[in-house]
Amino acid sequence: MSKLIAPSVLAADFANLQRDIEMINNSDADWIHIDVMDGVFVPNISFGIPVIKAIQKHAKKTMDVHLMIVNPDQYISTFKNIGANNLTVHFEACTHLHRTIQAIQKEGMKAGVALNPHTPISVLEDVIMDIDLICLMSVNPGFGGQNFIENTYKKIIQLKHMIEQSGSSALIEIDGGVTDQNAHKLISAGADILVAGSFVFKSQNPSETIQNLRLLANS
Ligand SMILES: O=C(CO)[C@H](O)[C@H](O)COP(=O)(O)O
Ligand SMILES: [Fe+2]
């Protein structure tokens, strides 16, 4: 399977959101990564339902929604209705993670679980067969533009091993601080999807930057 690039709209120009979504549509990007922050689970508030509805009107790529919120269960059907294809919840925010995963899949979405940098991958041992996607946070969630945490490589290698040993088909997504400097190394360690926000949207030519990341990921 080719490796995927998911630009994060957290770093887009919100006053020109339609323009930036169309840039993603016309680029080599595979997914659109959409970060939802509630100011409780993480110390920041990004955007919510009305903005994602507006994104849905224009988005032509897989909508990969990353929930950094407490009590995600109460919004699962809402996110389905506004176009989420993948719905990722945080391990640290779910008391009944297995129930949450089942509820996401019952709505017809792919279920993802995100782990904070301090959370060991071993917490996924008993749900690894049930998950479609694992999002390893390579920064502390809440903000774009942070520095990549080097310990992530070790976690990818461990997680890849766990996935292979178990026979799970879960994909590994890396979120935070992804650039052209670490993209190839992340893929070599076992990543399947790279999320990139600031590196794409702060570049001179975001579409070319996406193309470059995709080439690096698949070289
Ligand atoms: O979930 C996130 C932050 O919590 C974002 O997806 C992530 O930060 C991407 O932004 P950048 O590439 O600028 O680090
Ligand atoms: Fe994210």
UniProtKB/TrEMBL annotation:
Q: Which GO terms describe its molecular function?
A: D-ribulose-phosphate 3-epimerase activity; metal ion binding
Single GO cellular component term: cytoplasm
- Which pathway does UniProt place it in? Carbohydrate degradation
Q: Where is the active site?
A: D35 (proton acceptor), D175 (proton donor)
Its keywords, alphabetically, are: Carbohydrate metabolism, Cobalt, Isomerase, Manganese, Metal-binding, Zinc
Instruction: List ligand-binding residues for a divalent metal cation.
Output: H33, D35, H66, D175
Q: Which reaction does it catalyse?
A: D-ribulose 5-phosphate = D-xylulose 5-phosphate
Looking at the keywords, is Isomerase present? yes
User: According to the UniProt entry, what is the EC number of this protein?
Assistant: 5.1.3.1
| Binding-site residues for substrate, renumbered to this chain | S8, H66, G142, F143, G144, G145, D175, G176, G177, G197, S198
UniProt similarity note? Belongs to the ribulose-phosphate 3-epimerase family.
Q: State what this protein does.
A: Catalyzes the reversible epimerization of D-ribulose 5-phosphate to D-xylulose 5-phosphate.
Kindly provide the name given to this protein in its UniProt entry: Ribulose-phosphate 3-epimerase
Species the sequence originates in: Urechidicola croceus
